[in-house]
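okkk here we go again. third time trying to get the S-adenosylmethionine bound version out, last two times i messed up the smiles copy paste (missing a bracket lol). double checked this time i swear
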Amino acid sequence: MNYVTDDTMNAYLRSVQPMYDGVLGEIQKEAIAAEVPIVPPEVARLLSVLLTMQKPKNILEIGTAVAFSAGLMCRYLPEEGTVTTIDRYEVMLKDARVNIKRMGLEDKIKILEGDAADILQTLEGPYDVIFMDAAKGQYQAFLPHCLRLLPVGGLLIVDDVLQGGTIAQTRFSVPRRQRTIHKRLRNFLWEITHHDALETSIIPIGDGVALCYKKKEIIPETKTEGETKNAE
Ligand SMILES: C[S@@+](CC[C@H](N)C(=O)[O-])C[C@H]1O[C@@H](n2cnc3c(N)ncnc32)[C@H](O)[C@@H]1O
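finally!!
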């Protein structure tokens, strides 16, 4: 796992912020020990604060893994609230199902199995919070769906946006195999920071977290009469 912050800072942050209690805390410790890529503890705490403030009813997550963050997010839902979570990796989902049962959250967490690129198109929402924590190279492709599924006042939280800090380096100073992802993430970050309907902040903790608040409706572009005629 890559981090923007150094080992000393990570160790310090983890020493001042307690791990979660109950079965959720056990799942967190097991996942860390097994090197399952769940959100780092300091990002989990950021999620807790954001969800306490946002008070979502329905949450969408892209990237379930073993259902640690899905279980965490359930703590901030009202009685009737739900987390819908997408993952394409059956091996992870097997553990996720076991963990959801351990937490007694079978009625709160709905797993959608498959590629988010296909599933997102079928969803109608709205989701007050969307937590995107999946393949970074696809974030830009997922973005229009997330923006469609978020109501005005909704919050998009995106994990792992800074590639261990290498995003700040020039394209040619990162290893060749990382250049495509580097370019895609930079394009994604440019889009969310320049989007007219979003108020965005990029926070350098964990591997970088982007927060995008949807402040107004997104009006689909309409074609002028000339453009319509030319297209005919
Ligand atoms: C970083 S892990 C998610 C961790 C989880 N949110 C947590 O903190 O507990 C990323 C997950 O996204 C899934 N994933 C990556 N790309 C995906 C895609 N295009 N569609 C569905 N799932 C995807 C992977 O299988 C993996 O389980």
